[in-house]
Amino acid sequence: MRAVFLVGFMGAGKTSVGRTLAGRLNWSFQDLDDRIVEREGRSVASIFQESGERAFREAEHAALRDVLENLGRGAGQVVALGGGAFAEKRNTRLLRDAAIATVFLDAPAEELWLRCSRQERESGTERPLLKRMNQFRKLYQSRRESYLEAAVTVQTGGREVEEIASDIAETLALKKANRRAEGETE
Ligand code: S3P
Questions:
Q1: pTM check: above 0.85
Q2: Which ligand 1 atom minimizes the distance to the CA of 116?
Q3: Residues 62, 53: contact at Cβ < 8 Å?
Q4: pLDDT tens figures, 70-97
C-alpha cells in the first residue's frame, strides 16, 4: 500500500505540504475534511454548529474508514487529516492496523496560531476550534503526545512548504531503504 498520512495541529501545513508532496511523488492528494464535507453535504463549521463536535468526530471517523477502504485501488496517495483526527484512539488504531506511514508536522503553538489567524483573514478559513490563543495552546499541548505517535516528526517552524515536502520524501525513502536493508519484504 503506497500512502502517507499527514497529521498535526491546525495550521501545521498538512494540506499545503500534502499537495506539494503528492505532486513530487506523482501521487494523488486528499484532505479528510473535504471528504467529510462531501459525505455530509455541509461545511465543517456547520457540522460543529448544528450537530456539535461529537457528531463531527463520528463523521471524521467514518470518512477515515472510507478513505482507508479505498486506498488499495489506484496509485499512491497523500492524505491530510484534520487536527483532531490523530488525537482519537480509534483513528490511530485504524491507521496502525493498516500499517500506514504517518508524518507529524509540528511547529511552536505561537506560529500555528499566527498561520491560522492569517488564513482566516486572507481566505476566510473557518475553524470552529480557533478561538483564543490560550485555549488553542492548551489544546495543542494536550494533543501533542498523540501526534508524537506518528512514525516520523518533521519540524515546520519558519520553513517553506517545498522544503518540508522534500524533507518528508527523503525521510520516507530512507526509512524504506533501511527496512529493505534489514530484509523486510514489501
Ligand atoms: C480540527 C481541525 C480542523 C477540522 C476541524 C477540527 C481540530 O482541520 O478538522 O475544524 O479538532 O483540530 P485542520 O487541522 O485542517 O484545520
A1: yes
A2: 16
A3: no
A4: 987 678 999 999 999 999 999 999 999 9
